[in-house]
Design brief:
The protein contains 6 helices and 10 strands. The protein has 217 residues and is of the alpha/beta class. It has a 4-stranded parallel beta sheet with strand order 4-1-5-6. It has a 4-stranded antiparallel beta sheet with strand order 7-8-9-10, with no helix packed on it. Strand 9 and strand 10 form a beta hairpin. The two termini are 36 Å apart.
């Protein structure tokens, strides 16, 4: 299992199975470094002011400073002791960036945070950054639009999960649009787009081509 870092800003960590991988086991083996936003947010207000915290921006008047959160990512990439090998090809998971906007952080500050994480994780360590962000849809949200457009320009792979245009369906829960950008390819072949439909099950998700649901066949 590749080493991973997870920054969860809206969900509670559960020592269970995720995507067929035991998160608890991965954490015990040092394969997963996890920052749980909900619990860590409480610590911010009860910790002495001089002690640094990844979510320091929650108690600062200027809520746009995400440097401590980036420094947490930097520290997590370092070997725990001199005899441990450095992380290779790490994966940084952020769930989700939209929460930072709701906490008063500006879109530009969030994009700067992602930019520095990409520079550290992707360029220096040859890893990947995976981030979740919500689309406000028809609602007018300028900050969210700036964040979505900025991430869209930075990303090589965009997965957009959305409901069906026809409404609720018992056997098809939505569709997943995939945009794959390949900068090294000629201009006409750089972008490849695919669309799949999906059904969410107890511990799995089934994907199939449009109109090819097992219930239809």
């Amino acid at each position: 299992m590749p080493r991973q870092m997870a920054v969860s800003l809206c969900t509670t960590f559960s020592p269970s199975i995720s995507k067929g991988v035991s998160l608890t086991t991965a954490r015990e083996r040092g394969q997963l470094v996890f920052l749980e936003g909900l619990k860590s947010a409480v610590d911010v207000f009860f910790r002495p002011q001089e002690e640094p915290h990844p979510l320091q921006f929650l108690r600062e008047a200027n809520s746009g400073n995400l440097q401590p959160l980036y420094e947490f990512v930097q520290e997590a990439l370092k070997p725990m002791d001199s005899g441990e090998a450095a992380w290779r090809c790490p994966v940084l998971l952020v769930d989700d960036l939209s929460v930072l906007l709701s906490l008063g952080v500006g879109a530009v500050a969030v994009l700067d945070f992602v930019h520095y994480c990409r520079a550290t994780v992707c360029r220096e360590r040859k890893g990947n950054v995976v981030a979740l962000v919500h689309d406000s849809g028809d609602a007018e949200d300028e900050e969210n639009d700036i964040l979505l457009n900025g991430l869209g320009h930075q990303s090589q792979l965009i997965l957009r999960a959305e409901g069906l245009a026809t409404g609720f369906c018992k056997d098809v829960h939505g569709q997943l649009r995939i945009l794959w950008r390949r900068p090294s390819q000629p201009t006409a072949q750089r972008d490849r787009s695919l669309t799949y439909q999906y059904k969410i099950q107890d511990k799995n998700v089934s994907f199939f081509a449009k109109g090819m649901s097992p219930a239809v066949l």
